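User: I've been trying to design a sequence by hand for this structure and keep getting stuck. Would you show me what you'd pick, starting by listing the structure so we're on the same page?

Assistant: Good idea, let's start from the same input. This is the structure you sent:
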């Protein structure tokens, strides 16, 4: 819903930490990813549009297992994903509100991490190209045995922040598989409608539905508990 800010009810909630997806949540790399899979699809002899229909929110290694299992290894995946920001960096833009949110989290020295289906070279590449804040903690595709919608990535994200399983966590996601992963990990989830319809986001189980990250604002940290006070303006 580009160019539109959610105008629904605003509410403030407390969380021990934030776990944030990358593609479609912080960065809109749609055009770059389309070009990437057209390139790879041609090499594989596969229809790139068929690949693209199911690849969003899924790790590349899991996609490659379908089309060419011998290429489903981290050396190859890291190589091809690391090239995306270099070859198609001009096609990516930040999701509205993303830069301000990350900057505020850094200013507050808040517990936050990026949790993504992309590899480390892809994530760091996008952060560098767009000059966005780098998290101290990162969970990438190669860190877990199973990708989203398996909750392992978000469970690991909470662990890397040094927070207990019972800690109140907020996940920011745009894909149904990622939303399901966050919910299965016991987190509250804000679902962005940047890449999927409202119905798809709602069906996946998002607790709040917003257009983009302009609808999520960190107001500060509680002086006693040190939890983050997060205002969410859901549509």
């Amino acid at each position: 819903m580009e160019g539109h800010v959610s105008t629904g009810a605003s509410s403030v909630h407390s969380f021990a930490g934030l776990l944030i997806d990358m593609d479609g949540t912080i960065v809109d790399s749609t055009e770059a990813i389309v070009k990437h899979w057209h390139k790879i699809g041609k090499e594989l002899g596969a229809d790139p549009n068929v690949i693209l229909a199911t690849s969003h929110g899924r790790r590349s290694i899991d996609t490659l297992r379908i089309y060419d299992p011998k290429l489903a290894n981290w050396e190859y995946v890291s190589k091809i994903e690391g090239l995306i920001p270099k070859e198609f960096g001009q096609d990516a833009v930040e999701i509205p509100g993303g830069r301000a949110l990350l900057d505020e989290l850094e200013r507050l020295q808040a517990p936050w991490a990026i949790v993504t289906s992309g590899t480390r070279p892809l994530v760091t590449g996008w952060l560098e190209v767009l000059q966005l804040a780098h998290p101290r903690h990162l969970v990438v595709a190669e860190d877990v045995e199973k990708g989203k919608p398996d909750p392992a990535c978000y469970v690991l994200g909470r662990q890397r922040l040094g927070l207990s399983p019972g800690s109140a966590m907020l996940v920011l996601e745009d894909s149904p598989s990622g939303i399901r992963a966050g919910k299965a990990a016991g987190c509250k989830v804000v679902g962005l409608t940047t890449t999927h319809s409202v119905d798809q986001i709602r069906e996946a189980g998002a607790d709040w539905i917003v257009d983009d990250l302009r609808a999520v604002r960190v107001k500060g940290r509680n002086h006693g508990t040190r939890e983050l006070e997060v205002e969410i303006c859901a549509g």
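That's my pick for every position. To get oriented when you compare it with your attempt: The chain is about 40% helix and 20% strand. The longest helix spans residues 30-44.
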